[in-house]
Amino acid sequence: MTIYxxxxxxxxxxxxxxxxxxxxxxMITAIETxxxxxxxxxxxxxxxxxxxxxDGIVVPGMPNAHSHAFQRAMAGNAEFRLSARDSFWTWRxxxxxxxxxxxxxxxxxxxxxxxxxxxxxxxTSVAEFHYLHRAVGDRRYSSVNPLWEAVGNAARAAGIGLTxxxxxxxxxxxxxxxxxxxxxxxxxxxxxxxxxxxxxxxDERRASNGADNHMLRTGAAFHSLRxxxxxxxxxxxxxxxxxxxxxxMHIHVAEQMLEVRACVTATGRRPIxxxxxxxxxxxxxxxxHATHATPKELEGLAAADATVCVSISTEAxxxxxxxxxxxxxxxxxxxxxxxxSQSTVSPAEELRWLEYxxxxxxxxxxxxxxxxxxxxxxxxxxxxxxxxxRAVGQPVGRIAVGCRADWVVLDALHPSMAGxxxxxxxxxxxxxxxxxxxxxxxxxxxxxxKGGRHFADEQLRDDFGRIMNDLRTG
Length: 474
Prior knowledge:
The chain is of the alpha/beta class. The chain folds into two domains: 96 residues, Urease, subunit C, domain 1 (Roll), CATH 2.30.40; 331 residues, TIM Barrel, CATH 3.20.20.140. Strand 15 and strand 16 form a beta hairpin. It starts with a strand and ends with a helix.
């Protein structure tokens, strides 16, 4: 057990100074605060407790609610124009080329590098939306899937919390069209998918010997309505609910207008309409993108209490379009962020551009502030952290009793924080480049970043460079 004396921290009730936080086995078990403006000496503590001071400004770590780790290996490699009509669909061909070359060892090193980058940027947990299931050449692995294991090994090596989302991917388009050759590695039949998830959850429970494992969660994902026939989706979703009633479930939907038009042609319904028609959505579901949602569809998502995850950097990089965040939040919709294709690995940048998109559309400032929270940065970081916790299904997103000790420490002496009071710290983080002030990061009670460095930095530099050269020249 360790008691941390936090100089300043953002708690659920707001900013506080001189906060004592007790952490046992990675979880917060007690919090004591002084009255505003009245710092108090630490109270006597149990003899076995260590007292560790934490200078700086401590904020909750951010859950990354949507990630494709293997795509880190192509970040920045598709930023040249092939034709005047380049789009998501042309980018996808480059993604398929990478997906059909990467091996388990490659994936583990790429994912470890990515997860360390996430930690340095303030992400302390990640939902990995994983659809690489088969060996190169469409061969089944005989028992343990090394591609799945690679992601788990990377998360442990980096020290990040992981929600692993095996993803069902069965068709190339609406109407159950057969997968294309380049999509063959993604295929699992529905029963195989369900058995693998049930076995994984059982193995995790046996390995933990009845103790709660607060760093790892298994959920499930459906790639999209075009990639999973509707009857298969319904069958699998209900079966997964039987395996774990609180299981996180994620799905891409309405990211591209071509997808929306194809869905209307095939079914007579728009994708989000079609999904809502199934009456499957609950608070455990996270809908990814929802870029082309109508006001009525947004209202339906909010009413279902589902979370929406946006990745502004990816949606901008791929030319997807604008998500109507202002409207959705006005409906009390739950919104979180993710790094998706890894074109940017920074929650501060995702949230900054969430606000900036709205400013550009509405031609005014402070669009996503509220009457109860006038600081845009504070409102966006707080809500994305708490809603992201729901999406990853982990006890994170707040500095509160019963939550995992996942903290980001901002260096109050960094130039980007100069002259800042605590109430503007998160505004500085989002809008003044203070992501450079992220000094230390804790996950599950362990310091994984200290002074901006991860213990594996040196080895990773060599390993990642080797893998990237191999993937480029292979």
